[in-house]
Amino acid sequence: MNYSDRHLFFDLDRTLWDFEKNSQIALKKIYELYKLDEFIPNFYKFYYTYKSINAELWVKYGAGKISKEELRNARFYRTLKKFKKDDKILSDNIGTAYIEISPTQKNLFPNTIEVLTELKKEGYKLHIITNGFKEVQYIKLTNSGLIDFFDVIVCSEEVGKNKPNPEVFMHAMKLANAQPSESVMIGDDLKVDILGASNVGMQTILFDPDKKYRKAKGDYVIKNLNEIPSILPWIYRSSSF
Fold first, then answer.
1. Given 47, 115, 161, 181, which is the most exposed site by the fewest CB atoms within 10 A?
2. The whole model's pTM is what?
3. Rounded to the nearest 5°, which phi and psi values hold at 229?
């Protein structure tokens, strides 16, 4: 059976590309490279402080309250200040190093390549919709061997809005020449990916390997990407397609 008129839109970070693992590796290299142990007692204090600040700033960026530049400039500066280190030059250097090191990491979630290969072989059209920054996301996709699987790659900054804004999903479907009834969004964030896609009429699959959303009411919830191929026929059978 050929599914060439059926479109699967994937989030990238924390859905295919293991953001947490790759980010931690990059930050460990930075901690050692810049000898941050001279004023930060251990790596994990640095890591979890940065992680909290970064998450807070991404929420603000997603809501349009700060710019891409403000996010990048503030996250390491504020992290260092937590350890009484007020050094703009150092924080800028670390920020640059992070952008260079992090996207070159290659850790994917289990079964990513196998599942994408199977879906492509079946004839599904595969696409990416990500809130990540374009220059970084393309490096991730290329270095991890993912880029050739996807026909359309949409980074939300190209639209001028972020998921869950409906314009992002509509733009991606327009580029893919896909109707909502033909489209399935697969992502890890209940609000950003799942509710955002549902609001424009797409079917959804929530990827929740750590059972973060115990009461999630998405169309389908999975813990492993290898569950996707067996779910899709049920999704399309029950849709208006």
1. 181
2. 0.93
3. -60, -35
